Amino acid sequence: MPPATILKFPTSSPADTTPLTRLQEAGFKTQDILGIVGKTEGNGCVNDFSRTLSSHVWDALIPETAISIFSGGTEGVLSPHVTCILESYEPTGLNAAVTRSRVLEPWEVGTAEHAKAVTESIRETMIEENIQPGDVRLVLVKCPLLTSERIATIQGSGRKPVTLDTYESMALSRYASAIGIGAAIETFLEPQIPYLLSKGDFQTPFASCSSGAELEDCHILILSDSRYTPSPPAPLLRTFTSTLNTAIDFPSLQALLTKALTPTAPYTTATLLQVFAKAEANPSGLVGGRFRHTMLTDSDLHSTRHARAAVGGLIAGVTGDCWVYVSGGAEGT
Amino acid sequence: MPPATILKFPTSSPADTTPLTRLQEAGFKTQDILGIVGKTEGNGCVNDFSRTLSSHVWDALIPETAISIFSGGTEGVLSPHVTCILESYEPTGLNAAVTRSRVLEPWEVGTAEHAKAVTESIRETMIEENIQPGDVRLVLVKCPLLTSERIATIQGSGRKPVTLDTYESMALSRYASAIGIGAAIETFLEPQIPYLLSKGDFQTPFASCSSGAELEDCHILILSDSRYTPSPPAPLLRTFTSTLNTAIDFPSLQALLTKALTPTAPYTTATLLQVFAKAEANPSGLVGGRFRHTMLTDSDLHSTRHARAAVGGLIAGVTGDCWVYVSGGAEGT
Amino acid sequence: MPPATILKFPTSSPADTTPLTRLQEAGFKTQDILGIVGKTEGNGCVNDFSRTLSSHVWDALIPETAISIFSGGTEGVLSPHVTCILESYEPTGLNAAVTRSRVLEPWEVGTAEHAKAVTESIRETMIEENIQPGDVRLVLVKCPLLTSERIATIQGSGRKPVTLDTYESMALSRYASAIGIGAAIETFLEPQIPYLLSKGDFQTPFASCSSGAELEDCHILILSDSRYTPSPPAPLLRTFTSTLNTAIDFPSLQALLTKALTPTAPYTTATLLQVFAKAEANPSGLVGGRFRHTMLTDSDLHSTRHARAAVGGLIAGVTGDCWVYVSGGAEGT
Amino acid sequence: MPPATILKFPTSSPADTTPLTRLQEAGFKTQDILGIVGKTEGNGCVNDFSRTLSSHVWDALIPETAISIFSGGTEGVLSPHVTCILESYEPTGLNAAVTRSRVLEPWEVGTAEHAKAVTESIRETMIEENIQPGDVRLVLVKCPLLTSERIATIQGSGRKPVTLDTYESMALSRYASAIGIGAAIETFLEPQIPYLLSKGDFQTPFASCSSGAELEDCHILILSDSRYTPSPPAPLLRTFTSTLNTAIDFPSLQALLTKALTPTAPYTTATLLQVFAKAEANPSGLVGGRFRHTMLTDSDLHSTRHARAAVGGLIAGVTGDCWVYVSGGAEGT
């Protein structure tokens, strides 16, 4: 698994690929790109064509083995940008690997077959790249959703779609991907996939999944800690994970940032490169078990948009950075 | 000007007036109500009937001299609630007075006549209640907007409306109110009202204005510091003001909260009663002069909704309180 | 069952009850009101507070035995109005009766208990008012939906809600009501209620159901043909029913209108009083089995809004009348 | 000016270019394409990236001299499709020419310079292709709009944008284009351009303009009647124009269709190839001077979306065809 580094750049529109030029100015070649993880400015829901547009322009430029993961929705202060995951010639402390699942049939989206396909792809990559489960820090997955057309295809084939609601299919797809990630890291979970799917409350801290109409397979990015660290003063990349217990869990966020921004000797400074977060409207209708929220009864604005805006406002505010990756819908994560 | 105290309660819907019962349980009478300042769960824009519904049910219950100010929009983690401004029988350190402007003709909304009407009403109240300009800490105004019908009335009378865009009329109305507040506190500004209106960049830290279709006059609430303070251990109410320079200005917010939550001897504890904030998408299209935001190019979701969600996410997160008053559109403030 | 007549009036806002004055000018008393059926200008979905506001102001004015049915959503050319169903002192050819079901527990919404409660209420009324099943021409029902709060109540009681999606609960509630109507008219259907609910494709031409958060029981209006007709030249009220096979089924609409507008001797003119229609996005994703529509993949705008706008455009265009009752979501109808 | 023919095809997504294959199956070559006029499934407003995506994929495939015009918004029953304007080897009765204006500077959008650039391009083409003003039947223009970024560019250059509201810039841009078209056909109007712009009520029946963020010049398609007609039984293409006086003007629509569908000897049948229509919410707030509409006070849904849905519902219903080109915002037309 190659050592990796991370650079991020703002984009002026979903069709903006000028970050490629800036990468070259920074000394990287196109071939160094492992993956492009971006936030685009659509609604982040079913008919978000900003994601499709970004995939379209970037997929034509990055290496065939590289993947793109675009998450729509830059509500509030979130700012469109791309995070480039790049192969590094020297150890950085961070490793990255990317892969794709097989193409999922429409009727597999959100099912055990979907979860298993994700598990399989991740596990193959872990074997190939010699990644130990304990070293995995984050798996980002972009997975398909069901459009009206795909639902009709499913029904035409005599099968039953997991849902008739295209927006809900996004959540079911994210959840299946999260279970797939969980089962890849913790092998004993694999036989439980169907049970976990039906139970509905599986959670893993290592997953960040988003769904879109722009693809039919799953794009997978694995970030892991490396045993090979750079020689100071070459910068050391470190990962930190935490769970926000509520959408207003500022104490946990602050604790995490304090930890991340405390330099370890011999380093004397620490800089935040990127935040990857998932945001969700609590299904109970309450924030923190106490404050009634209206995200799930707002028929003008889907709850994932609300959640991204609010959690994005908090994270961007506290970090002072609007180029953070905040994605909506935290099923399974 | 009467000493005042503040209590806030969640609401289960825009029609929920049960806080009245809870006020009584807390020892207050309906006659003690000076004003009800609430957040309701509509879109906060032109066709927000949650505001109208709340006004309707509350105005029938509160004293005739009391006023209601409902601000729509509880995007993200913001939670519907009412803040009750109550007359106190003992000094609290905080004074409050409420008034209403005369009814504005549709063609006055957003003009110098509107601003002057606000100035006049505030100034009369300041004289009657013996409020010194230097003691005023916050003036909340709820002011009218232009619906299609009101625009037609204006045109039918041979006049020209300030705008043909109903959503834009909200901003123009807020701005005229803010200028009216400014001119009430700083007398020398009054002759400049027409100039300030056309110039467009007036700002006062004392104003919080929101507009709605549910009223034709302006509802005005004045909060000021009192020279009469309670005898400890009776609680002392204090006000603190600050400007967030950007929608992600966490340092300013944190500094303000630190100040507010540091007890002054002989008190040993300090509690946050309420936050009144205005949120706005920076017209430059950038957050902090640097991060491109998409709030002004999102034709599915008006920028005031984006701004409330993001700034609400930050303030609710950092204070741990979702019953905060965050209102959208900060023209003049 | 009393003879009934119908008058309709535009409204200037959801809080506008001036049609009451116009009714009096037309010679009716408040006590003559059997029901108010209105279109209000909200989103017609879960958080449509225009409906609640209208219910609130009208329910305080109409007789206790009368009912209100407000359907939100005046997209496109649809124009806010109320249709007053009035008791007539003379036969008109049309009879009307109104009733309410018992209050539904949150966990009953959308279930067989809901359908049965509707059946029961209608049947009792039919017996009391001596209405023959074959004479029933239209049953309008307004029924509850599930908000986040009601979903939490259900879960708190250890039960499982029919759905966790508040918007979807509207469709399930409409469907249960339609089955309830069907079973009231065709007795043999009653034992099949649970089966029809699970099967999902029941249809009756006599039902028009809409759901809202503003009520906990079902409001029911029954229109039937009367055997007692007025003596000409007193106007004769007649009802005509048809099904639009698609959202663009102009031929069926035209045929129906031609029939309705052809006077029967001795009458020499015929006037259209009102159209009651239901509109829906075809679940197949196609209009007329051929044209791909995007109503079910549009995450910015719920499909009921799309459907009302389009079918409302057609019906208002062809009839030349924007005060038509076009309601979204045609489950069971 | 080349004889032209028209073929239209449904699209399965904004990225779908399979109509190209179907064109080839129908005997056309890519080089025959003069223009692609499509309806895509975005919101049709500022952030409609479905338009950008379609432009992106099609512009890479069509001849350099050809143009694309994508209009977003397939609300209600409108169905995504492309109309291909093709050069014909034989006379058809219809001629077509396409051109582009020079790139407009951001500060020119919506101004007299914009209108003049359109006039100039059209007039040059008319001279080159020998088109007589009296033969022009329809000019379709796709023109730029102002994004936050372009507004900042304008302000950065010390200029004043025509508006600060990105959505409003779409209307101003359409209006300038319409004036440009009018002045190209009626020469005497050219000196009046600034006056017509400020007056705001210019109208020409020959224009159909839509704006988008996906281009910086204007794409222009001119359809005109040809003096050369085919020899029967080769099909004769004819154009018919009418104005709907209101959004529910069914009589005018019906009269137009009757005229269009009445075959002229020696032809015995007539088929409708395509409808190009503009739809708009009447600024008075009333449909037909009588029915209050809510399109201009709906802050959740822009009026162009409402208007397309309603007028699209009428036209698709009456023609039985959902692949009609109904575009929102009829300024100047």
TrEMBL record, chains A, B, C, D:
Pathway of action: Xenobiotic degradation; atrazine degradation; biuret from cyanurate: step 1/1
EC number of this enzyme: 3.5.2.15
Binding site for substrate: R51, S71, G72, R174, S210, S211, R308, S327, G328
TM segment ranges: none
Residue ranges of the region described as RU C: 237-333
Family according to the record: Belongs to the cyclic amide hydrolase (CyAH) family.
The protein's name in its UniProt record: Cyanuric acid amidohydrolase
The entry's keywords: Hydrolase
Function: Responsible for the hydrolysis of cyanuric acid, an intermediate formed during catabolism of s-triazine based compounds in herbicides such as atrazine and polymers such as melamine. Catalyzes the hydrolytic opening of the s-triazine ring of cyanuric acid (2,4,6-trihydroxy-s-triazine) to yield carbon dioxide and carboxybiuret, which spontaneously decarboxylates to biuret.
Record text on subunit structure and interactions: Homotetramer.
Species lineage: Eukaryota, Fungi, Dikarya, Ascomycota, Pezizomycotina
Region of interest (RU A), ranges: 1-90
Domain comment, as recorded: The monomer structure is formed from three repeating units (RUs) that share the same structure as one another. The monomer, the active site and substrate all possess threefold rotational symmetry, to the extent that the active site possesses three potential Ser-Lys catalytic dyads. It is possible that any or all of the three active-site serines may act as nucleophile (albeit only one can do so per catalytic cycle).
Organism superkingdom: Eukaryota
Gene3D superfamilies: Cyanuric acid hydrolase/Barbituras, RU C, Cyanuric acid hydrolase/Barbiturase, RU A, Cyanuric acid hydrolase/Barbiturase, RU B
Activity regulation details: Inhibited by barbituric acid.
Keyword Hydrolase attributed: yes
Catalysed conversion reaction: cyanurate + H2O = 1-carboxybiuret + H(+)
Site (Important for substrate specificity): T304
